[in-house]
Write a sequence for this structure.
């Protein structure tokens, strides 16, 4: 019988549970793991997963988490979970150079929201900062978090963007993310640094994500805009595990993968089903555009295997979480945006 998730502690335990693939990837990769930009939505559970996987292997290698730590309480939380917090402004070249060595690097730093008002900040965060990190960790193995937004919007009927497709997206944010990939590719080729680029589409953690965004609109009686009518998503536990597995595939030039679930999901259908689970009326606005940011996931399925958590579970878990008053991070994805202005 399926177990529903009712507390933050149980949710974070579930999201940080390593799968066999993550454990096996770290088995063959000795040395510390450092997560750069750990303060975001995924960083703490990803680092905790790495710690739990190393513990299963009987390894004493450290898991280090680097951020500015503007949110109070996070360093203490990380320490409770066996992760070493390090306060650092990753735009400070001297501070980055003084970070400890680590054989395995997970790069999660970047900026998306606020781009429309201060595009220059986004470009610095997404291109200059990666250059500082790539120089510092030239002898390490690096997994770079990227986004499906590096592709252009593609026809819904076409099966989604493939890793080898041209990168020609709209807007400053997406183009700065292309810049991030280009910077890491340059240093990978220049220094022989093994790099893997993880193009993530919409991780789901019951406190945020596309399903949470849709469910919140239904719960609040607001219309659900279906103009961006289709999307892919993935349970965050599996996204975390994929990132750790990417370490084993890092190469020069970089190895690239679309990381998300294989199902092409309809916003209209997800809203309708969440409305039914919540016992609420759904109001739809707009008409589905013929294009969307969607992924061809054949490479990911070949490398990582099929997902173990599908959309049925994510829908039920999301509805249950909301009905029992579960916490929200207050960080909407703005998946509806089509012009790249975030």
């Amino acid at each position: 019988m399926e177990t529903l998730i009712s507390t933050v502690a149980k949710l974070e335990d579930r999201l940080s549970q390593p799968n066999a693939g993550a454990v096996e990837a770290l088995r063959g990769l000795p040395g510390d793991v450092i997560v750069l930009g750990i303060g975001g939505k995924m960083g703490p559970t990803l680092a905790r997963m790495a710690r739990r996987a190393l513990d299963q292997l009987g390894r004493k290698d450290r898991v280090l988490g680097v951020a500015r730590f503007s949110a109070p309480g996070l360093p203490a939380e990380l320490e409770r979970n066996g992760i070493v917090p390090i306060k650092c402004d990753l735009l400070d070249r001297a501070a980055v150079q003084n970070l400890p060595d680590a054989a395995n690097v997970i790069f999660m730093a970047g900026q998306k929201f606020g781009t429309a008002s201060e595009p220059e900040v986004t470009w610095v965060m997404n291109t200059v900062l990666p250059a500082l990190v790539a120089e510092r960790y030239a002898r390490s193995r690096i997994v770079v978090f990227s986004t499906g937004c590096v592709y252009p919007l593609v026809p819904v009927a076409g099966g989604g963007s493939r890793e080898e497709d041209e990168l020609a997206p709209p807007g400053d944010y997406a183009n700065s993310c292309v810049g991030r990939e280009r910077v890491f590719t340059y240093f990978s080729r220049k220094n022989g640094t093994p790099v893997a680029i993880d193009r993530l589409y919409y991780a789901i953690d019951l406190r945020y994500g596309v399903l949470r965004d849709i469910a919140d609109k239904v719960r609040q009686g607001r219309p659900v805009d279906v103009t961006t009518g289709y999307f892919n998503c993935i349970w965050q536990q599996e996204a975390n595990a994929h990132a750790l597995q990417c370490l084993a595939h890092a190469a020069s030039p970089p190895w690239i993968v679309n990381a998300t679930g294989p199902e092409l999901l309809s916003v209209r259908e997800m809203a309708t089903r969440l409305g039914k689970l919540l016992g609420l009326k759904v109001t739809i606005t707009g008409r589905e555009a013929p294009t969307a940011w969607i992924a061809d996931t054949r490479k990911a399925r070949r490398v990582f295997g099929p997902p173990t958590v599908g959309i049925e579970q994510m829908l039920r878990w999301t509805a249950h979480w909301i009905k029992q008053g579960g916490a929200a991070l207050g960080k909407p994805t703005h998946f509806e945006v089509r012009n790249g202005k975030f």
Q: What stands out?
A: The CA atoms of residues 174 and 259 lie 17 Å apart.
